[in-house]
From TrEMBL:
PANTHER family associated with the record: HYPOXIA-INDUCIBLE FACTOR 1 ALPHA INHIBITOR-RELATED, HYPOXIA-INDUCIBLE FACTOR 1-ALPHA INHIBITOR
Domain of life the protein comes from: Eukaryota
SUPFAM superfamilies membership: Clavaminate synthase-like
Pfam families: Cupin_8
Residue ranges of every copy of the JmjC domain listed in the record: 1-168
The name this protein goes by in its record: JmjC domain-containing protein
């Protein structure tokens, strides 16, 4: 990546996903402050893990749910997020065990276009008004309740970086 944040074509694509970087680089804990006021007001407030997500343009995580509350803090580039309450999991065509927390629907094929999403997957109509979208810029954060399905995709031509906090 050059100084403007543009990814050069000859650089191989790599995606650091759901990585506990603080375990590998303990000095990072001085720069990552756990937002105790927020985390303490939901669930038991016990941090399970702090994850880093660093990726190239055009990377995404499939629609899935996690067994923890999640505070996702975006640091670089832009990311779009789509949330779907677990009440509508039957609309998401989930994988069989052991991946039953992940949808088989190809949300990435719709490039963040909600209209295209509902045309491609009419079974989502039932969840339509309950699904929420947002675009995250550096410094933005989003809370994802335990069990809420979510999909993330990078936007634009810059690499992205985020950190999230999982807790019970």
């Amino acid at each position: 990546e050059d100084v403007t944040g543009e990814v050069k074509a000859q650089v191989p694509r790599m995606y650091l996903a759901q990585h506990d970087l603080i375990s590998d680089v303990p000095s990072l804990s001085e720069d990552i402050i756990v937002p105790a006021e927020i985390i303490g007001n939901c669930g038991k407030g016990h941090i399970q893990r702090t994850n880093f997500w660093i990726g190239p343009p055009e990377c995404f995580s499939p629609m899935h749910k996690d067994p923890f509350h999640n505070l996702f803090v975006h640091m670089r580039g832009k990311k779009s997020v789509l949330l779907c309450p677990s009440l509508f999991s039957h609309c998401l065509d989930l994988h069989p065990p052991p991946q039953q927390n992940t949808s088989r629907l190809d949300f990435a094929a719709c490039n963040g276009d909600a209209d295209a999403l509902f045309r491609a997957f009419p079974q989502l109509d039932e969840a339509g008004t309950e699904m929420e979208t947002a675009t995250l810029s550096p410094g933005d954060a989003i809370y994802i309740p335990k069990g809420c399905f979510h999909y993330f995709a990078s936007e634009g031509s810059k690499a992205t970086a985020s950190v999230n906090f999982w807790w019970l």
